[in-house]
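FW: tagging you since you asked about this chain on Friday. Here's the raw sequence from the shared folder, copied in full. Didn't touch anything.
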Amino acid sequence: MPDFALYRDKENREYERGAEEFVQMCQPLKNLRVFLHQDYELALKLGADGVHLTSQQFDLISKAKEKGLEVIISTHTYNEVHVAEAMGADYVTYSPIFASPGKGKPKGVEDLQSIVDMSDVKIFALGGIVSEEEVQQIGKTGAYGFASIRYFL
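HL: got it, structure written out here
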């Protein structure tokens, strides 16, 4: 059972309604942390635990934290990880670790290990995680966890 769930639907014209239904559906699962994508104000309004910001939204970290939300932010470089940590993000996603359609050259497990070793922020590995083999490789790095869609489908 996952510990975190994220509502992310970039094409839904009724995103707020879908997000509200998602949050309500997740509420009975007491140990599940619920996040909404990009919109910290909506996350606050709907009672989500936090927001997952894009790598273009570093300026919103402090605003979301001031509202009492947990913050995950997408990162793709060591510098972004360090900036997110310095700005108070609770977690980062770091990607792509493995080959993932349309996501650029994979960073690999060794690169993930390096950033885990030099950072105190909790890191979720992301990108190309489709089988137990990738999950086991990530587990050996000490990363906080992993995020995936295809692994769970």
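FW: Residues 18 and 43 are 12 Å apart (CA to CA).
HL: agreed, and The chain has six helices and seven strands.
FW: great, closing this out.
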